[in-house]
Amino acid sequence: MSKRNKKILTILLVIFVCVLTGMAVYNVIGNVGGDKDDITVYFVRHARTDANDAGILAGCETDAKITDEGSKLAKKTGEYLSDVKFDTVYTSTLSRTKDTASIILDANKNSTPAISQLAILNDVNWGRAAGLTPYEAGQKYPDFSEDNYLGTIDNNNFESPIGATSKYTKVKNFENVLEQVIATTPSGGNALVVGHSSFVWLLQSMFPNQVNASDALSNTSVTVLKYNDGRWTLDQLNYNP
C-alpha cells in the first residue's frame, strides 16, 4: 500500500472512531467549565401536579401544584438520592420544581446548598394552546402536533402559529443551564437540577443515538449526566425509583 493510501486510510479510521464516539458522547462547544472534570448532574422531572392529573398543556404559563401522590413519589426519589452530596441545586421559577427539590433535599443525609432558580429552566410556553388538553387543542387546531406547533429541535427558523416557544429555543436555553451548572459546580461535585419534561428535547439533541424522539421523562424520574474533560455522557435515562 502506498504512503498516500495509508494516509487516507488513517484519516478514514479516525473519522470512523469519532463518529462512533459521538453516539455516546456530547462534546461541549467552546471552553465551558474550563479544566473542570468529573461533575455529575442529576436531572429530576418535577413531581406530578394537578395539571398532569387534568391532562392539560400547562407549560410555563400555569404554576401547577404538586399533588399528594406526587409528594410521596418525590420523597421516594429523595430517599433514592439521599446519599448523594449535592454541591449545587437548580430549579425553574415554577413552584412545582421548587417544591419537588425541597422534598428531595429534606430526605438527604448531607448538608445541602440553597436552591438557585433559573427562568431559562422553565417549561415551554404553549401559547394559545396553554390550558387545553391535547384533544381540545386538536379540536381547535386540526393539524395540532408538537412538530407543527413547536417545531423540531434543530429548526432555528421556526415560528409557532400559536405563539408557543419553539423546541429549538428551549434546547438552547437548557444548554445554557448546563453551562451555568458546570461553571458553579466544583470538580468531582454533584448537581441537582429539577425541571420539566421538555428537558428531554435537550437530551435528544445531545444523544441522538441514545434518546429517541418518542422517549419521555416521567414525573420524579432521575436522569444522570456526567461531564468530564469538556464532554458529556448519559449514564441513566428516566429511572423511576
Q: Helix count?
A: 8
Q: Taking Cα atoms only, what radius of gyration do you get, to the nearest Å?
A: 20 Å
Distance between the terminal alpha carbons, to the nearest Å? 56 Å
Order of helices and strands: HEEHHEHEHHHEHEE
Helix and strand composition category? alpha/beta
- Strand elements, count: 7
Q: Averaged pLDDT, please?
A: 89
* Biggest beta sheet summary: 7 strands, mixed
Which regions are unreliable across 5 or more consecutive residues at pLDDT < 50?
A: 3-25, 28-33
Residues in helix, %: 25-40%
Strand content: 15-25%
Structural topology:
Elements: H1 3-22, E1 25-27, E2 39-45, H2 50-54, H3 68-80, E3 88-91, H4 95-106, E4 115-117, H5 134-140, H6 146-150, H7 167-184, E5 190-195, H8 200-206, E6 222-228, E7 231-239
Parallel strand pairs: 2-5, 3-4, 3-5
Antiparallel strand pairs: 1-7, 2-6, 6-7
